[in-house]
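Good morning C.,

I know you're traveling, so I'll keep this short. The sequence:
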Amino acid sequence: MTETSRREVLKGAAGAVALAPGLTLIAAPADARAPGMPATPANRWGLLIDTRKCDAGCTACVDACKTEMGLTGHHRPLTDAQYLRKVNVKDPASGKAHSVPVMCQHCAKPPCVDVCPTGASMKRADGIVLVDRHICIGCRYCMMACPYKARSFAHEEQTNQREANPRGKGCVEACTLCAHRVDAGQSPACVEACAAAGHAAMLFGDLNDPGSELARRVAAEASTRIRADLGVEPAVRYQGI
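The tokens, ready to paste straight into the viewer:
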């Protein structure tokens, strides 16, 4: 059976499950990328975060990120890596407050890549920005260049390693948009955790696919990018701020 026919069979089976009484089918955001196949510019992965649905007291996304990426080591606030953080903001004019999840914005024109002297900071063809720990020299130029303070530095020997996120002392690291999960046709861990917590404030998808829910909502609803004036074109958009 060919790959195409296998996918058709699976799609047909999924449709049958969706018709079963009492069952809800949650589809993956995209087809899994075949092992060994490179990322393609046909995709532009991104997020839409509705801060109106984000509970200031909820840390589901942050906790899921730490677990998924193995960031539960030393528990020292000044040295622990944090790929995703909650920032509380308040409009001085209206007094309206929001809790804003902030991570690497996976910019189309990432300043971190521009300043890296070794090429360790890089952008995949599908827009995901990563750090190659094998050639990172720990200079931290990228940390200074990032306008979102989205990168961390590993000051100590790392434990609790995850196969999908190898870490090392003396290297810079940041949100990978859960590239290992994206490549498997899944959503990032933070997105799934937010939905499981009942908030559904985070939507993941392909900005290049006009048929995706993400692209449709970005086209139809008002959203903004943090520091859009910098012209780095983040792949993360926000509503409510």
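Safe travels,
E.
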